[in-house]
Amino acid sequence: FVTGIFHLKVPETSHVGSAIGRIRAVDPDFGKNAEIEYNIVPGDGGNLFDITTDEYTQEGVIKLKKPLDFETKKAYTFKVEASNLHLDHRFHSVGPFKDTATVKINVLDMDEPPVFSKPMYTMEVYEDTPVGTIIGAVTAQDLDAGSSSVRYFMDWKNDVDSYFTIDATEGTIATNELLDRESTAQYNFSIIASKVSNPLLTSKVNVIINVLDVNEFPPEISVPYETSVCENAKPGQVIQTITAADKDLSPAGQRFSFKLSSEASNKPNFTVHDYRNNTAGIETRRNGYSRRQQELYFLPVVIEDSSYPVQSSTNTLTIRVCRCDSDGTIQSCNVEAIFLPVGLSTGALIAILLCIVILLVIVVLYVALRRQKKKDTLMTSKEDIRDNVIHYDDEGGGEEDTQAFDIGALRNPKVIEDNKIRRDIKPDTLRFTRHRPPAEDNTDIRDFINQRLQENDVDPSAPPYDSLATYAYEGNGSVAESLSSIDSLTTEADQDYDYLSDWGPRFKILADMFGEESYNPDKVT
């Protein structure tokens, strides 16, 4: 060695297997005789390091075998021996052909992340624990000389982590939601710790929380819920062995007990025999059963567990009476078998059912035809009524038809409201005979019209039947205005009726009667 002591400075964060320094021994030989082998002399601190030879430079490369910790040990000292790899036996007597040097390694303090007190944490909590209950805590420390404070937080990866919270300062873990063991029996998540002085330096630890079961579900009968008994069964015969199932996580030594309910214990049909090994047998208590008397029996069985608090449930077992042979082999349990001894075969039952179906079809067809016939009759009647309405829809006969319309309606439209008899349809009553007294000479036309008005008001058969709306308001909006001189503001002598001659032949009689030359109120009849 050129020098007898080598000083190296190594950071405590150096990785295992990494090269932390080099030393060199000088050999004036050449070729194979110059190859050097380095070895660490056993002693203080040598077990944390290893040394190899660089075949190109013949230097000794010191490597780290175990992690360093400044807070645990700050310096290491050990010796390294260098020797020729190839020795010539002829020169053994000349010298040992090796040399020793001392290596001193100083560990440098580095800013490291916090360190948890355990590599993994396991905790337990009962289901249905109230929200906010503390179930455990994690602890991490800063082992550096500066000793910074530590903060904790959840490593959120999925929604499962939301069931718990952690106190950032104390590291205590508490429930954040109600837990259900039947839904999730175990939770697995990570907690991260970081230094307050350097939040980038973090460490992580895994936390496992096991949810403990609380006895909240009663036991139930395992399938099947239905069994059978032979008609020729004997008393004390076991017809079914039942077991129980519990949705809760059954603890070691869990026991289930079986018994009849109180209301069924007094009935002489069946009983339950508890074998005290979490099973029970259903036994008969009668000498034979009859399907004709009772086909089904319902047996209430009470099952109780041994957990705390005790849970129990009543389960109904259906027992069907069946026909069996002498060996107890079931031959038939259906309803059809009850009728077979009477003499009705399967073919006979099918024939009876077919006859019933055919009768039902005939009845349905008959009812449908009757309804169709009634419908056709109603349609014909409706068409006749419609034709009748169209048939008498005609106008009045004009001024010469003195019976065509009720002129009183022209003078007083309120007659429509006062007279409740409809004039738009033909009345069913017999036509009243009109008694028309002869108009006296020199009778005022007003009295004549009023007389006719009263006659028509009391005559329900006065035609026309559908022209009331047509003539009820005649004169409104007409150029000729009203044709009547009744209620005129002036006297009859002041009226000018010459314009009637301009209305054509249909008003010729009126024009002659009320014309200027021929009109004389005293002669009008």
Explain what the structure shows.
This protein has 525 residues and is α+β, with helices and mostly antiparallel strands. Among the domains are: 5-108, Cadherins (Immunoglobulin-like, Sandwich), CATH 2.60.40; 115-212, Immunoglobulin-like; 220-332, Sandwich (Immunoglobulin-like). The protein is 16% helix and 30% strand.
- Low-confidence region ranges: 385-392, 466-474
At the fourth level of CATH, the homologous superfamily of the domain at 220-332 is: Cadherins
According to DSSP, the number of beta strands is: 25
The CATH level-2 architecture of the domain at 220-332 is identified as Sandwich
Strand-pairing-aware structural class: alpha+beta
The shape is elongated
Averaged pLDDT: 79
Helix content: 10-25%
User: How large is the share of residues in beta strands?
Assistant: 25-35%
Question: What top-tier CATH class of the domain at 220-332 fits best?
Answer: Mainly Beta
What is the helix tally?
7
Radius of gyration: 62 Å
GO cellular component, one term: catenin complex
Subcellular location: Cell membrane
Keywords: Calcium, Cell adhesion, Cell membrane, Cleavage on pair of basic residues, Glycoprotein, Membrane, Metal-binding, Repeat, Signal, Transmembrane, Transmembrane helix
Protein name: CAD12 protein
